[in-house]
User: Fold this.
Amino acid sequence: MKRFFWCGLALGFFLVAQPAKALDEIPPPFGFKWNDLTGRVETLLKGAKARIVTREKKEHNEVWTVEGLVQPGLKRTLFTFREGFLVEIELQYEYDDWTIERYNERMGEIRRYFDAKFGVGKLVSRSRDTDTDVIQTLVGYQWMVGSTMLELFYFSAQRDSLLFRTITVDYKMI
Assistant:
């Protein structure tokens, strides 16, 4: 009986002492998987009623610009393929009627979400260029897990009354 007690205690300790399984990569959004083939991605995009607006060759990659994926503020999504395999998805958000304060608030919300999920992100950019007639602001964070990376950027350019703002979320295999 004593033997069962010690075996049970040892087994219980072993089960409790096992660390929670950590993420070994950052998965791409929308249920895609790293290294999905172009044909699978195209089929899923058609099923979502999204449009591939352009297909461009850039160095060793093929980049598709996609519109019509339904998510608030999502203007376009760039899918990058290397040798026919998915290696990057960049989400570009624009909110026409948002103030700078609302953009800052949204950046904070997204950053806190990713911090909670992947650990504290690294600040990789914080700049404001006022040397020309176009005022540019760039703030960026980065998370790395295994052989994947996630980047979050806010970019703003303003010239007189003309204003452009965007938030990008870029999922990459590295």
Summary: Confidence is low (pLDDT under 50) at residues 1-21. The first strand starts at residue 51 and ends at 58. The chain has three helices and eight strands.
